[in-house]
């Protein structure tokens, strides 16, 4: 009796641990983009972020960057579900805001790029303190930081018919999963295990080294945004659907087993997208919280 009781509790514990780990895996891409962004914030932006972060974040933006994923299935936050992605008509490898940015009920602007414009506009009303605001700017900061990560995940700008790869069942090595999950989690997870001693911080440091060494001449191109709105999500979404067509969907037919060939050829794409997401999140926050007029920022 005691033995079987223990094994039941044991099994529940293992299951719980597994659920917690599955949950934590989803956080890694967002943790990486926000950590990279934190290292690139201007003094003004870092000060504003510090004021706006919830207390439980302990001053660390990266620790709360997955919050929108954690609440999106909760009844009160259901409306935020469509804000995590934007899909194009099937097999169309380009993105157009007017054509694509709507939810399944056809309501315009309810998509990831629309959400980035909206939360950028809200954060522009920040006047130096979190109190007496029309908008909840803590929420706006967490949503904006998360959605800038999402728009860089190629399959968050995928095809309507397969829900950005969610309905394409594949095997990742021996595990049954779907193509969307491969790009959200599996490639990053396998990279951590294979190359980074299972340590996310080591992986982030390697990406940061790439940014300052190999990609340093690309940074100003990545950051470039002269929009009066101070956010430029449309080119990021266009890049994503092109990458989705060229790398994510390619050779990933339903039922296929994806392993070394796919992993090793797609990992550089994932690492570059995490870097771009981080650099552009910092650039966007630096523009939003800059005390200088836009003309001076874009000339700098
Ligand atoms: N649901 C429908 N399309 C999606 C996408 N591209 N990404 C995430 N969830 C989705
Ligand atoms: Zn998301
Ligand atoms: Zn996703």
From TrEMBL:
Source superkingdom: Eukaryota
A GO MF term: metal ion binding
Pfam families: S1-P1_nuclease (PF02265)
Keyword S-adenosyl-L-methionine attributed: no
Stored SUPFAM superfamilies: Phospholipase C/P1 nuclease
Keywords: Disulfide bond, Endonuclease, Glycoprotein, Hydrolase, Metal-binding, Nuclease, Signal
Signal sequence bounds: 1-24
Catalytic function, reaction form: Endonucleolytic cleavage to 5'-phosphomononucleotide and 5'-phosphooligonucleotide end-products
EC number(s) on file: 3.1.30.1
GO biological process, any: DNA catabolic process
PANTHER family hit by this protein: ENDONUCLEASE 4 (PTHR33146:SF26)
Family in the record: Belongs to the nuclease type I family.
Protein's recorded name: Aspergillus nuclease S1
Organism encoding this protein: Aquilegia coerulea
């Amino acid at each position: 009796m005691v033995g079987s009781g223990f094994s039941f509790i044991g099994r529940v514990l293992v299951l719980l641990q597994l659920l917690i780990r599955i949950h934590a895996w989803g956080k890694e891409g967002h943790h990486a983009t926000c950590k990279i962004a934190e290292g690139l914030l201007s003094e003004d932006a870092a000060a504003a972020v510090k004021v706006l972060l919830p207390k439980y974040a302990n001053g660390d933006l990266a620790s709360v960057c997955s919050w929108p994923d954690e609440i999106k299935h909760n009844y009160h936050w259901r409306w935020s579900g469509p804000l995590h992605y934007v899909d194009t008509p099937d097999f169309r490898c380009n993105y157009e805001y007017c054509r694509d940015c709507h939810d399944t009920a056809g309501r315009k602007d309810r998509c990831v790029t629309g959400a980035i414009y909206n939360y950028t506009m809200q954060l522009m009303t920040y006047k130096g303190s979190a109190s007496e605001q029309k908008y909840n700017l803590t929420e706006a900061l967490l949503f904006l930081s998360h959605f800038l990560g999402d728009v860089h995940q190629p399959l968050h700008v995928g095809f309507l018919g397969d829900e950005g790869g969610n309905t394409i069942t594949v095997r990742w090595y021996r595990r049954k999963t779907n193509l969307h999950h491969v790009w959200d989690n599996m490639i990053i997870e396998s990279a951590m295990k294979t190359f980074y001693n299972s340590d996310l911080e080591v992986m982030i440091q390697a990406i940061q080294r790439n940014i300052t060494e190999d990609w340093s001449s690309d940074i100003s191109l990545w950051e470039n945004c002269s929009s009066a709105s101070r956010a430029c999500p449309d080119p990021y979404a266009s890049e994503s659907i092109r990458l989705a067509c060229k790398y994510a969907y390619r050779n990933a037919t339903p039922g296929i087993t994806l392993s070394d060939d796919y992993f090793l050829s797609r990992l550089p794409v994932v690492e570059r997208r995490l870097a771009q997401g981080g650099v552009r999140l910092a650039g966007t926050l630096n523009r939003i919280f800059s005390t200088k007029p836009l003309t001076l920022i874009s000339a700098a």
